[in-house]
Write a structure and sequence with these properties.
The chain is an alpha+beta fold. The protein has a single domain (about 5-114), classed as Glutaredoxin (3-Layer(aba) Sandwich), CATH 3.40.30. The protein contains five helices and four strands; from the N terminus they run βαβααααββ. The chain has helices at about 10-20, 40-50, 55, 60-65, 75-85; strands at about 5, 30, 95, 100-105. It is globular. The mean pLDDT is about 95. Keywords: Arsenical resistance, Oxidoreductase. It catalyses: [glutaredoxin]-dithiol + arsenate + glutathione + H(+) = glutathionyl-S-S-[glutaredoxin] + arsenite + H2O.
């Protein structure tokens, strides 16, 4: 079962979703802004993609600066909690498929797991 953690306002996320559909895959769409992930779910998703927590956080969002998430003294657990509390901080889109999990940024990365 293929899943996409999707933000419909994000161009990259829309491109990846269309790529999946063009390949005949109708993924489970998880709009994580409407249905935020809990800390354990975030941690598992990020680990499955082989990323660090800091690599998975979206630093371009104003709330990133507001919460001073660039502070190197913050632990992964503190950043994960900020991501759970502010789902816009999750970089996107993540895709899980039979061949693995990837943060599909740039969009072409999705090809690695199809």
């Amino acid at each position: 079962m293929t899943k996409i953690y999707h933000n419909p306002r994000c161009g990259t996320s829309r491109t990846v979703l269309q790529t999946l559909r063009d390949r005949g895959i109708e993924p489970e769409i998880i709009e994580y802004l409407k249905t935020p992930l809990a800390v354990p779910e975030l941690k598992a998703l990020i680990q499955a993609a082989g990323l660090s927590v800091r690599e998975a956080v979206r630093s371009k969002e104003p709330v990133y600066q507001e919460l001073a998430l660039d502070n190197p003294a913050l632990s992964d657990d503190q950043i994960l909690q900020a991501m759970a509390d502010n789902p816009i901080l999750l970089n996107r889109p993540f895709v899980t498929a039979d061949k693995g999990t990837r943060l599909c940024r740039p969009a072409e990365v999705v090809q690695e797991i199809l």
